[in-house]
Amino acid sequence: MALSWFVAYDFLFQIIFAVASFIIALFAFKLYKSSAQKQVCLLGCSFLLISLAYLALSLFRLLLNNTFLYVHIVLFMTGLAILLFMTLKTDKLSVFFVIVAITLLIFLFSINTLMTYYLVSAIFLAIISWHYILNFLSNRQTKTLLVALAFILLFFGSFHFFMSVNHELFYVIGHFLELAAYLFILTNLYLVLKK
Amino acid sequence: MSKRSRLEIINDILVIIQNTKGKPTQIMYKANLSYEMLSQYLSDLIHKGFILENKDKKGQRTYSLTDKGANFLRDYTIIKGFVESYGLNE
Question: ipTM score of the complex?
Answer without folding.
Answer: 0.84
